[in-house]
Design brief:
Length: 307
């Protein structure tokens, strides 16, 4: 792949994820598509949530370390949270950060202690995983790197597995040429085979079933789920991409307009669509309104240049 194509895909994935997050957050206030589009036209800036803030922290840590260093990553997350605690963080990550400070334990130890020692299987590790899917898109260590990035806040096997599948979807999208048509069957099989937990594997099979049978988005949400649990949101984000692989805009609206955890669904779907279609496919009218666009572009470009 030419460097220019790779850079376009990295930019598309990072910016696409941030836009999906920001527009998905708006959809909570404007759950009707017509009203949401009107609000998007009116606004001069759209603001992202903790989903993107943590993705940026993950990119920063990868660029600094060259791998996933769990302690460095956890400290980067903690520092960014202290600087911008108002981004909409759920209770899990701040609890982990506090436990590390108070007890002197590692981030993964603190994360393992959540939920009675089972760890979290929320979608927080998957929502931010896009830099891992990009940087390790051709690496045999993709699964392990994804899990390492997840376990500093989401130590449950399902939480890590869901993040790894999202990373696999992003990586797979980077490696495909949209001009050659989307290889639906092989891509779906790759995602099913990549999963290592029964919960995620079965949901990915339901995604395949939904696509094969052309099930509507509403019916797919009932079948697959759309909650903050990773096995009930990441699969629907993948479904939204697979249903609208050739349109970034349609993919985003499919992900966010069917209820549930809208901002995170948008972040995950936008990451895959952007990685597949590249930055050129993202509407300019949206692109120009994204908060902190220049910094996100810089991180994406540096990730591409480090390959």
């Amino acid at each position: 792949m030419k460097n220019t194509d790779l850079k376009s895909k990295f930019l598309g994935a990072m910016i696409g994820s941030a836009l999906g997050d920001a527009i998905g957050e708006l959809a909570f206030q404007f759950p009707r598509e017509e009203n949401l589009r009107s609000e998007l036209d009116r606004l001069s800036e759209v603001r992202y949530t903790d989903d993107t803030a943590m993705a940026l922290g993950l990119a920063e840590s990868i660029l600094d370390q060259g791998i996933i260093d769990e302690q460095h990553l956890g400290q980067t997350f903690s520092n960014n949270f202290e600087r911008e605690p108002w981004r909409g963080y759920a209770s899990g990550p701040p609890t982990v950060f506090y436990q590390v400070k108070q007890k002197g334990i590692t981030y993964s130890e603190a994360a393992q202690g959540l939920f009675g020692g089972k760890g979290s299987f929320g979608n927080g590790a998957a929502m931010r995983i896009v830099p891992v899917g990009l940087f390790f898109h051709d690496s045999p260590d993709l699964y392990d790197q994804a899990c390492a990035s997840a376990k500093v806040t989401h130590a449950h096997p399902v939480g890590m597995d869901g993040a790894a599948i999202q990373a696999c979807a992003v990586a797979g999208a980077v490696n495909l040429n949209p001009e050659e048509g989307f290889p639906l069957e092989s891509s779906l099989k790759a995602l099913v085979d990549f999963a290592r937990t029964t919960e995620i594997r079965e949901k990915m099979r339901l995604v395949k079933q939904s696509i094969d049978r052309e099930i509507s988005p509403k019916a797919a949400t009932d079948l697959i789920g759309r909650t903050v649990a990773v096995q009930e949101s990441m699969p629907f984000a993948v479904y939204s991409f697979l249903r609208h692989a050739q349109s970034f805009e349609d993919c985003i609206f499919c992900a966010i307009m069917n209820g549930g955890d809208r901002d995170t669904l948008g972040a995950m779907a936008g990451a895959i669509a952007g990685a597949y279609l590249g930055i050129e496919a993202i509407p300019q009218s949206w692109l120009q309104k994204l908060e902190n666009l220049t910094y996100i572009e810089q991180l994406a470009s540096r990730l591409a240049e480090a390959m």
